[in-house]
Specification:
rod-shaped, single chain, mainly alpha
């Protein structure tokens, strides 16, 4: 099994949530930039 995949599955769920929040922030930032342009 891929060691990185194992690391992902072992990672705590709250870190995944934080990553999702980061993604959401990035997405809204990009949308804001597009609206400004």
């Amino acid at each position: 099994m891929n060691p990185s995949l194992m690391g992902i599955s072992i990672e705590p769920a709250h870190k995944l949530k934080i990553d999702q929040n980061k993604l959401q922030n990035c997405r809204s930032n990009i949308l804001n930039l597009v609206n400004v342009l």
